[in-house]
């Protein structure tokens, strides 16, 4: 089934107790925040792409075996401008907004200038991220929106550019056990250079607790990586992190800055300025967290498009990292909204779970054309082309799998299990799975006419194994007389433990964040 034009969501801002079937574990205490597009038309105007829709946030709070739900639209500047104009007034990546024809010439000129040097949207519909003690709705622009994680009220607009020279930043930061956050952004033509900037947002220090200052005030640049091309930086959605290294993939899926600056004048959207260059290779940057410098060896692989890193870890002189990769950029095109069910003109993008192994210190005595990977549990290779340059080939562990999550308590360590959505020739997800990277076996959850979201693993506080916990996913149901629900699966057996039916509509969403209840 092809994704058809969705209807606008209806928010449910008041907390509502769900109807629970089964038994929610007593140890499961906290709130799962989910985020994704919810409004697709305003007045007589409609968005062209699903990713462009205005954000709606959902919260699912678990306490004493019960669950409470609420939802709210993200009421940022984009939302307010669109609602005030009763039309789409702020451009998104896949939808260019043009002034009402009745507006004055001055308004049209200002709109044109705003699109030549874009002032991006604050419609953070991709994920929920945490900096310091504060939670934010985010996409990938320089703007994030602080939110109240309890009421879902929209709060301050935060501009990365006030703290760091980044025009774009990922919606998938990493966190360590001390509460520090790590992220990467792109600095476009700053002082004549385009570069990628890895930065750290420290946990809130004691001296700043209770003060009205944003955690980004203490952000620190850890490393800068020069872009291979000044005016065509790579697009990326996530990155990898181990105890001692960052992994950044500079892929030949690029944003053409010149074309982007002229897109409005040419009557095309910004997404059309993304180009995939299959004839080019992919450069894998391995950065030492202790020195802030890249390792001497350069790692290359074939052209690919990666949105989601799964995990990375170190083993016997290697850095191993797992990603979900595509052979081209067709995935984005699959989410263009069409008021029809005929998908004959849309090519399906199939994902593959790929494992790469990077020898950190290549033995200079080894001759060219030799594989330097010595690990026995992977068929991934890194062949020496010449001194300081390795050509890497991944081991493909699985296909048709995306939106991966692990037990984040072992992020940066060797993992065995991965939870994700299983997709076929559609943007509609019908299954979620638990994948065993050792046996290569997959366990599934499936129910007729149901579409689950990204699964989130929550470890049991006293758990003794990697998969000791539960997996939570929100499920849209098209079955008669069945509302949407939160599904809770046993992390080990992948069998249903409980489900909680909500008294409101759920939507297909993107990503989320679980906030454990403080003891």
TrEMBL record:
Please give the cofactor(s) recorded in the UniProt entry for this protein.
Fe(2+)
Pfam families reported for this sequence:
RPE65 (PF03055)
Binding positions for Fe cation per the UniProt entry: 172, 237, 308, 511
Give the cofactor binding note: Binds 1 Fe(2+) ion per subunit.
Report the superkingdom from the record: Eukaryota
Record keywords: Dioxygenase, Iron, Metal-binding, Oxidoreductase
Q: Which InterPro entries match?
A: Carotenoid_Oase
The family this protein is said to belong to: Belongs to the carotenoid oxygenase family.
State the name under which the record lists this protein.
Beta,beta-carotene 15,15'-dioxygenase
């Amino acid at each position: 089934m092809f994704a058809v034009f969705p209807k606008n969501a209806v928010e449910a801002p008041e907390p509502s107790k769900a109807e629970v079937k089964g038994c929610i574990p007593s140890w499961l205490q906290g709130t799962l925040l989910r985020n994704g597009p919810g409004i697709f038309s305003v007045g007589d105007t409609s968005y062209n792409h699903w990713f462009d829709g205005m954000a709606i946030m959902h919260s699912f709070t678990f306490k004493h075996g019960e669950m409470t739900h609420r939802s709210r639209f993200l009421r940022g500047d984009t939302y307010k401008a669109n609602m005030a104009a009763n039309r789409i007034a702020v451009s998104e990546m896949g939808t260019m907004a043009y002034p009402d024809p009745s507006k004055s010439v001055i308004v049209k000129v200002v709109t044109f200038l705003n699109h030549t040097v874009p002032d991006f949207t604050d419609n953070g519909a991709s994920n929920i991220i945490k900096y310091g003690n504060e939670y934010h709705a985010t996409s990938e622009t320089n703007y994030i929106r602080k939110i109240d994680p309890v009421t879902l009220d929209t709060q301050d607009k935060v501009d990365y550019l006030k703290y760091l020279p980044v025009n774009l930043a990922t919606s998938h930061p990493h966190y360590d056990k001390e509460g520090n956050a790590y992220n990467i952004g792109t600095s476009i033509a700053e002082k004549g250079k385009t570069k990628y900037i890895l930065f750290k947002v420290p946990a809130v220090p004691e001296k700043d607790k209770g003060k009205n200052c944003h955690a980004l005030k203490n952000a620190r640049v850890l490393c800068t990586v020069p872009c291979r091309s000044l005016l065509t930086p790579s697009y990326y959605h996530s990155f990898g992190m181990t105890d001692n290294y960052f992994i950044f993939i500079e892929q030949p899926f690029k944003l053409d800055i010149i074309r982007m600056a002229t897109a409005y004048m040419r009557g095309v959207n910004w997404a059309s300025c993304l180009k995939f260059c299959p004839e080019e290779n992919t450069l894998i940057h391995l950065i030492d967290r202790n020195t802030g410098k890249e390792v001497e060896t350069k790692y290359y692989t074939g052209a690919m498009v990666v949105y989601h890193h799964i995990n990375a870890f170190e083993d016997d002189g290697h850095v191993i990292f797992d990603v979900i990769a595509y052979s081209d950029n067709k995935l984005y095109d699959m989410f263009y909204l069409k008021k029809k069910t005929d998908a004959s003109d849309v090519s399906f993008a199939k994902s593959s779970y790929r494992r790469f192994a990077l020898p950190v210190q290549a033995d200079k005595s080894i001759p060219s054309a030799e594989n330097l990977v010595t690990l026995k549990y992977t068929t991934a290779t890194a062949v020496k082309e010449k001194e300081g340059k390795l050509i890497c080939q991944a081991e493909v562990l699985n296909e048709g799998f995306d939106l991966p999550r692990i037990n984040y308590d072992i992020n940066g360590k060797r993992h065995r299990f991965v939870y994700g959505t299983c997709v076929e020739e559609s943007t509609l997800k019908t299954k979620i799975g638990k994948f065993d990277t050792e046996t290569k076996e997959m366990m599934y959850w499936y129910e007729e006419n149901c579409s689950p979201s990204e699964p989130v693993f929550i470890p049991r506080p006293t758990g003794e194994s990697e998969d000791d916990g539960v997996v939570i996913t929100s499920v849209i149901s098209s079955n008669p007389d069945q509302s949407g629900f939160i599904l809770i699966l046993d992390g080990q057996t992948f069998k249903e433990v409980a489900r909680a039916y909500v008294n409101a509509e759920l939507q297909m969403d993107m990503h989320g964040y679980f906030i454990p209840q403080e003891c």
